[in-house]
Specification:
This protein is mostly helical and 172 residues long. It is 67% helix and 2% strand. A hairpin with a 2-residue loop joins strand 1 and strand 2 (53-54). The radius of gyration is 22 Å and the shape is elongated.
Length: 172
């Protein structure tokens, strides 16, 4: 099975995954570029702020790499964009929890402050929501490719029932 097999290229969910990845990726790219524009120290922890968030050169590099990954996933689209959104979003939430405990400690090499932790949680939930939209739910419509993949036998029965009256009419 190929990663792209589940979702048809022209499916309407593809647009949601692409927009979510591109939007969040652009925000991270802008943040990273602003950090480089301020010529911050690579592991500086003296409290330089960019766009209301504390940052340093290392966090700027990470932001640019993750932003480029999201923009690349938006360019590819489909299940790739959805999977990358879910993965990156979960990593953002995990990063928020880790850095919540690292604030005001020597191990805080990314110079996270509480505003960074809140941003990490919000951005993580936003990216994850874009990735899971239409993919993870108890109420997916039966024409949704993810529902059909999980319920192949039931989908085949529904397809055969829908086709049966049409064939019965054409045989008469």
């Amino acid at each position: 099975m190929n990663v792209r097999d589940e979702l048809p290229l022209d499916h309407r969910l593809n647009l949601v995954y692409r927009i979510g990845a591109a939007l969040c990726g652009a925000i991270l790219l802008a943040f990273g570029c602003l950090g480089f524009a301020d010529r911050l120290g690579f592991f500086a922890t003296e409290g330089a702020r960019v766009a209301g968030l504390s940052t340093n050169g290392f966090l700027s590099i990470i932001s640019i790499v993750v932003g480029a990954l999201l923009v690349g996933a938006a360019f590819i689209g489909g299940n790739v964009a959805s999977t990358v959104n879910i993965t990156v979003g979960c990593l953002f939430v995990l990063s928020g929890f880790v850095h919540l405990f690292l604030i005001d400690k020597a191990a805080n090499i990314l110079d996270f402050s509480m505003s960074n932790v809140v941003f990490s949680f919000v951005m993580g939930l936003l990216i994850t929501t874009f990735g899971m939209y239409g993919r993870v739910s108890g109420g997916l419509p039966h024409d949704n490719p993810y529902w059909r993949r999980r319920h192949a036998a039931r989908g085949a029965r529904e397809d055969s029932r829908a086709a049966a009256p049409a064939t019965a009419i054409t045989r008469r």
